[in-house]
Structure formats: structure tokens, C-alpha cells
Amino acid sequence: MKFSLISVLSAASAAVLLTLSAVPASALPAAPAAVQSIEKRASEIEGLNNYSCKPANGQRPVILVHATLLTLNSWDDVAPVLIKRGFCVFALTYGVNKAVPGGFGGLNTIESSAQELANFANNVLKQTNSTQVDIVGHSQGGILARYWIKYLDGKGKVYRHVGVSPINHGTTLSNIVTIAKTFGLFYPSQDLFDKFAPSFYQMVNTSEFIKKLNAGGDFAPGVIHSNIATKYDEVVTPYETCWQKGAGITNLLLQDLCMLSLNEHLTMVNSNVVIQFILNQLDPVTAKTANCLAIVKGF
Ligand SMILES: *[C@@H]1O[C@H](CO)[C@@H](O)[C@H](O)[C@H]1NC(C)=O
Ligand SMILES: *[C@@H]1O[C@H](CO)[C@@H](O)[C@H](O)[C@H]1NC(C)=O
Ligand SMILES: *[C@@H]1O[C@H](CO)[C@@H](O)[C@H](O)[C@H]1NC(C)=O
């Protein structure tokens, strides 16, 4: 298990507290070691973002969209498996606020992050001579494409959408407060969050953003949607808020595939059962049931 919410958040907390102490950026120490090790893995995902890759017949480029506080490095278990299976795999890091050290993604307004995804995806379509992409999105990354399709220029450009603990219906204010406390902020105010990480309050289930996202339906017509969630989610509660309500949408609980799995919100992308779920969605013809007992690591 590479990530835990606490380890990522405590790195984040150090970064944010440094920012808040109004020290000039040049005087700040380097990002905490945990963050550096996450960053270091970025360039090690071999074959990722290869714009010479030609999707095989019946396949589309696959774009991976990470969660709040993470970066494209969080796909370092998922991406190599997809690449080995012959998919053309792309990933971006979005929502980085340069005023917050550490390179955390997913901090900026969700609208601006959706625009970053739009720009990235339009470039992938152009460079690979494709008309559609498949998207796999984790947490906040699981709703950006829906915003792209509904409110930007994404209509018709997404074939499949796989959500890994996607925040389709937002999270609760109390979870945001829990995160804020982990940041070391006792009475976290929205003002404070809005300064360095406006996405946080936009993820609350009653926010204007979530209302707008789901106005007229919580899925994109014509897109094949599927979602996987975990019982042990500490960010998206209750986990059923990950589900989408359209006909024909697959909504699956990780523990229904693998009763013993203890994966929580951030480690979902390190689970081999989740990786098998993603493969099954992207290539239903060769779909296999993940046998969690046969999996040594990360079930
Ligand atoms: C990129 O894709 C091309 C075309 O499939 C392939 O020849 C090349 O080896 C790939 N490069 C990497 C770094 O995977
Ligand atoms: C896309 O099409 C252009 C022009 O036909 C070609 O030069 C390029 O190699 C193609 N790229 C891929 C990844 O197929
Ligand atoms: C938001 O979450 C709270 C806490 O679970 C719940 O009571 C409330 O009904 C939710 N509101 C909406 C609009 O989903």
C-alpha cells in the first residue's frame, strides 16, 4: 500500500502551513520527502503519454485522471498494466496551485481543472488521430470529464467513463472538516480553503458546483459509465454517493468482488482487483473476474 490518506495529508499539511506562514517561496524548504518520492515516480511510468502510440482496432486512447492532492504518479500501478495490454495511455496532473509547495494536484477550482482536462484530451485526440477517448477517473478526477462533456466542448468525445470512487454526488462538509483538521487547522474556514484549494468546498454535496454538475442527470447520455467504490471510503461518504442512476450503468462495490479488501479512498488505484475491473471495462471481450484470493499484493 503506497498511499494512505494520512501520509499524503500530513505532507500536504506541512506544505499548506508553510504557505500560510507567508514566507517567500524562495525561502521554503524543498517538498517533504514523501512528496518527492511520489513526484519521482512520475517520469518512471514507461510508455505513458506516448503520442506516437496508435490505438489498436476497436480501442481508443485511455486518459487517466487523478484524485484531489494526488498527481499523475498515482497511476503507477494502473498505467503499466494497461500499457502492457496494448492500450495507448495518457495522464495529466491538473489543478496545481503554484503558491502551494509540494506539487499537489486537484486544488484549483473544479471548472478550471475540467478545462485543463479538456485541453489535454483535445490534444490527445488530435495527436492520435482519434475521435473519442476512454476516461478513467479517481475521486475528483471521476467528475471532470462529466463537466467537460456537459459544459465545455466534450460532447461526443468520450466513449467509456470508468469512475474509481468518483465524487459524483460530492462529499459531506464533515469530511472536508476532517481533512482540514488533518491539515492542522482547528476551525477551518471556507475563506482559508478558498485561498489555496478552492476545489475542497466545491466538493461538498450541497455546493453550487455539485448542483450544476448533476442538473438534468448525473451521467452523460451516450457514454458507457461504470463505477467502483469501497466500503472503507473515508472521503466519499456514504460510498453510494459514488453511484450514477442511469439505466445500464455499472455500479460495483469492491467488497462484492473481494470481501477482504480494505482499500480506502486513495489506495483504490493500488488495488489489483480495481485494476482488473478497469481492464474489464476497457476491454469487455476479454473480461475476467478478479480472484482476490489469488492476488498477493494490494487486494
Ligand atoms: C511509443 O510508441 C511507438 C509506436 O507504437 C513505439 O514504437 C515506441 O517504442 C513507444 N515508445 C515508448 C517509450 O514506449
Ligand atoms: C496522425 O495522422 C498524421 C497525418 O496523417 C500522421 O502523420 C501521424 O503519424 C498520425 N499519428 C498517429 C499516432 O497515428
Ligand atoms: C449532504 O450530506 C449530508 C450528510 O450526509 C446529508 O444529510 C444531506 O442530505 C446531503 N445533501 C444533499 C443535497 O445530498
Blueprint (SSEs and pairs):
Blueprint: H1 5-20, H2 33-40, E1 62-65, H3 78-84, E2 89-92, H4 110-127, E3 133-138, H5 144-151, E4 158-164, H6 173-182, H7 190-196, H8 199-202, H9 208-214, E5 224-229, E6 250-253, H10 254-257, H11 272-282
Parallel strand pairs: 1-2, 1-3, 3-4, 4-5, 5-6
Helix pairs in contact: 4-5
The chain binds 2-acetamido-2-deoxy-beta-D-glucopyranose (3 copies).
The site of one 2-acetamido-2-deoxy-beta-D-glucopyranose has 4 residues, from loops.
Name of the CATH homologous superfamily: Alpha/Beta hydrolase fold, catalytic domain
Poorly predicted spans: 17-41, 294-299
What are the distinct ligands in this entry? 2-acetamido-2-deoxy-beta-D-glucopyranose
**Terminal Cα span:** 10 Å
Overall number of domains: 1
State the secondary-structure class. Answer: alpha/beta
Output the CATH topology: Rossmann fold
Oligomer: single chain
Computed Rg = 18 Å
Overall spatial form: globular
List keywords for this structure.
299 residues; 11 helices; 33% helix; globular; binds 2-acetamido-2-deoxy-beta-D-glucopyranose; AB_hydrolase_fold; Secreted lipase; lipase activity
What does this structure look like?
Helices cover 33% and strands 10% of the residues. β3 (133-138), α5 and β4 form a beta-alpha-beta unit. α4 (110-127) packs across α5 (144-151). The chain has a single domain, classed as Alpha/Beta hydrolase fold, catalytic domain (Rossmann fold). It has 299 residues and is α/β, with parallel strands linked by helices. It contains 11 helices and 6 strands. InterPro entries: AB_hydrolase_fold, Lipase_EstA/Esterase_EstB. Keywords: Signal.
